[in-house]
Design brief:
alpha/beta; two-stranded parallel sheet; 9 strands; globular
C-alpha cells in the first residue's frame, strides 16, 4: 500500500525544479457527518430542482453548484477557467474549498481559504488524501474527495454528461468530451466495491452508467 501511495505521489509531482503551490490534503477529521453525502453538479437535469431538499444533508458542491447550494459543507473544482471566473464567490464561500489545477496557473495559487490538492492521471480513485485522480471532469475529482472524506453512501445530483444537454458553463471543447468522461466513471467501480461504498446517480437521463440511477 505504501509503495502504491508513494508511486501515486511521485506521479503527481510535475514541473520539477519550479516553484510550486503549497499543497494540502482533504480533511479527514470531520466525523460521521460525511458518512452519507450528496455531490451536486450543475447539469441541466437540475433546472427547476428545489435545492432546499438537500439542506439537511452533507453536500459537496462542484463548480457552479456552489451558487445553488451556498451552504454546502465543501466545494471542489479542477477547472482553472471556472476558478478564475468565480474567484470572488470562491473566496466568500464559507465551507471547505478544494482545488486541483495545473501548476502553470500561478496567479491562482494563493486564493484565501483554498486547499490545493495534487492531481494524478490514474484510473480509479486515490486513497491518498493529498491527491485526486483525474477522470477528465471536476465531478470525477469530487467523487474522489467525498471518498477521501470517508463517505460510504453517496448520491450524485446533476451528473448528466449527456450529449446535447450541456452544462451551462462548459466550452464546446469540453462538451465534446462528455461521453469519454462518462465512461471514465466505470474505472471507479473496483475501488468502490472493495470498500463497500455505494454511489447512486439521481440523474435519470445521465450518460454515466457506472452507478444505479434513481429519480431526484
Amino acid at each position: 500500500m505504501e509503495d502504491s501511495r508513494a508511486g501515486t505521489l511521485q506521479a503527481a509531482e510535475n514541473h520539477a525544479g519550479r516553484a510550486a503551490p503549497v499543497y494540502g490534503a482533504v480533511r479527514t477529521d470531520t466525523g460521521a457527518r460525511w458518512t452519507s453525502c450528496c455531490i451536486v453538479g450543475s447539469g441541466p437535469s437540475l433546472r427547476g430542482f428545489d435545492f432546499e431538499r438537500l439542506r439537511d444533508t452533507t453536500v459537496l458542491a462542484v463548480n457552479d453548484a456552489m451558487l445553488k447550494v451556498p451552504w454546502a459543507a465543501a466545494l471542489f473544482s479542477m477547472d482553472h477557467r471556472w476558478v478564475r471566473s468565480r474567484l470572488t464567490s470562491l473566496v466568500e464561500f464559507p465551507g471547505e474549498k478544494y482545488v486541483a489545477i495545473q501548476e502553470r496557473f500561478e496567479d491562482l495559487w494563493s486564493i484565501p481559504g483554498v486547499t490545493y490538492l495534487r492531481r494524478a492521471r490514474f484510473e480509479s480513485l486515490s486513497a491518498d488524501s493529498r491527491i485526486v485522480h483525474l477522470g477528465g471532469c471536476s465531478g470525477y475529482g469530487a467523487l474522489n474527495v467525498a471518498v477521501l472524506k470517508g463517505a460510504t453512501d453517496i448520491t450524485l445530483y446533476g451528473f448528466d454528461l449527456t450529449p446535447g444537454r450541456a452544462f451551462d458553463s462548459d466550452q464546446p471543447e469540453q462538451r465534446s468530451q462528455y461521453q469519454t468522461w462518462a465512461r471514465m466513471f466505470r474505472s471507479t467501480l473496483p475501488f468502490l466495491r472493495e470498500r463497500c461504498i455505494r454511489v447512486l446517480n439521481a440523474s435519470e437521463d445521465s450518460a454515466i452508467d457506472a452507478f444505479p440511477r434513481i429519480g431526484c
